[in-house]
């Protein structure tokens, strides 16, 4: 039997740990290198984590490695957006007309710990923590690493190397420095984010509806809250970095912070006893979209996940897309009878257009979440879509469902069809052509025709 190749994976976050586990299951000898200490052994500092929204694409990849049920068990299902208006009144906007569809609020750290544990238990894996990759020799397939505590430097060699080391990828930076990366575009959003917190009430009760993603849309900024096991919520404020008002720059004193929350998020403020401490202590982090090309160097070094296509978090698809990268790579590998050289060379051509599409969709959803969710016409559109999706007589999926619940559609297909549907329904509503007395079937046929016309143009 032919010996399987040796693989180095730089970055043992979510994408890298899933990829490492899968490659080990396929018989490859895998070394995972991670600059952070072992997540399973240290207390995590708060402040930089937006809770993950695990959905169908991510679950499909987790199922591949036998981890779907374990991941589902640590998450909390969310069936829709709970919208909070300026008066504190709430409205539940379901994610889908199909009641069983939901996304799972999941701790990044806890999920990463599960995947690392599964990878560590496999005899084909070797995990190296608290070690920084400092240099890569692309021709000789060598990675230079430095152990953070001792300062000891090592050079490791492998047949194939993956870079899954996130948006700040060292592998990608080495590709730029060595002139292998021809296109590199990082678009920084004018908004940043700060992590806050709703503590659990006595008896681990939740201060707000448990099974929803809470949103306070305020047009130019917003607050969101996702549930955690034990009754707490991870809360994130998205706000412009700069500006005289409604910006992180403007919130320079405790009084200004208090007044800002009283004016805009009064019902949230009532369950945030540690607001001032967390606001001052937790960092203000940046948001941006990163796209680059090529992802492959010398036919044996490949970047994927955030290292290749980082996105803003507003569709909850960053991790799901990275997991789907692993799933797509595995499919290409299987179709080529385990030929890594072919899989490496084909991956980008198969995946790049979908990575670009989900980056676009994530930016689209930024506007939708902070502004459109409070717009009456948008809410009307969602009611029409929920009615269509709930019907057993037609086959309709909104753009959100195409992205989140319909993994058989690629991201690029979801983008094209979803945008056409949005445009069609909004136009028909404004022209008063979707009447309440119409049957679901009648509405669907009108929308279907309008969508078909848009797709032809």
Tell me what the structure shows.
The protein has 457 residues and is an alpha/beta fold. It folds into three domains: 6-75 and 106-185 and 288-366, FAD/NAD(P)-binding domain (3-Layer(bba) Sandwich), CATH 3.50.50; 190-286; 375-456, no CATH class. The protein is 40% helix and 23% strand. The protein is built from 15 helices and 19 strands. The strands form four sheets. It has a seven-stranded mixed beta sheet with strand order 6-5-14-15-16-13-17, with helices on both faces. It has a six-stranded mixed beta sheet with strand order 8-2-1-12-19-18, with helices on both faces. Strands 3-7-4 form a three-stranded antiparallel beta sheet. Strand 15 and strand 16 form a beta hairpin. The longest helix has 31 residues, at 340-370. It is globular and about 65 Å long. It starts with 5 loop residues before the first strand and ends with a helix.
